[in-house]
Amino acid sequence: MRLPNPAATLRRTSEFSLFSLSQSLLMRILKRLILVLLAAVVTGAGAVYGMSNSRMNAAVAVSDPAPSVTLDSLSVARGEYLVRAITKCVDCHGDDMGGKDFIDAGPVFAVRGPNLTKGAGGIGAELSDDDIVRSIRHGVGRDGRKLLFMPSMAWPDMADDDVAAIVAYVRSLTPVDRVMPPSEVRPVGRALYLAGQLPLYEAEEIDHDGPFNRMKPPAGPTAEYGRYLATIGGCTGCHGPGLSGGQVPGTPPELKPAANITPTGIGHWTEADFFRALREGKRPDGSTIDPFMPIAATKLMTDDDTRAIWNFLISVPRKEYGGR
Q1: In the chain, which segments carry CATH 1.10.760?
Q2: Structure pTM?
């Protein structure tokens, strides 16, 4: 009978013990690493939330009182025309101005236009004339905080009579009972915002101290008046300050870029082509313009206002596509 080798038995036992020890140590290290990584993620998320929250909720001081507001029928009618055909407020606030779910971009953000009427869930009864004008011209709410995706870059120079007419229209709104949850910026959106990759507040781009040029040209089918309408109508917001088109800031990559509407892009169009584009959403060749173009609003414009914008566009300097 062959007896076991004590040295070999001891060696195998030692090797097994070392293997077990190594495995145990490795598991402890992995667990600790996972905890560290989770802590880093949580800490990082907390830091992003904290920093973004501080910046998003920073108060903005604005000293720019509202002009005198007249609640007569002509002012209300002018305000409704501006809201529906020019400034397109109904896109976010709904056709009845009672609030609307505008866009839900998953982990990035959700934008909901608030109820501006005096109905249940509305804020119309709480808003002073100054509050409404501040939100339009400066993108700042009644509590001094910036308004998410409020396109106020187009409106600091809106003429006094036009901004007063919009206030008059808001005052006249039929009460709508609709409770809207607040807009929200979600984790990915907060990170992109802090990285400077997602502009959320146009109030951050506006010089709230002016100077402002609120003298508008006489209304009529002129290039000068067309420039004013194109500005408060937000044409430059999508097509760029130079109107040469390109990717619209803050939009996802899959969204089609805005077209070049300088003479380089539409110089071969006729005035009739332009009318068809703004009223039917059709190009001269009959193809359909991307639905991101607010045809539902532009088709409501008067002939003179449409012609004024046309005369303005054919007067601007030519620019190559994409320079915005």
Answers
A1: 73-204
A2: 0.84
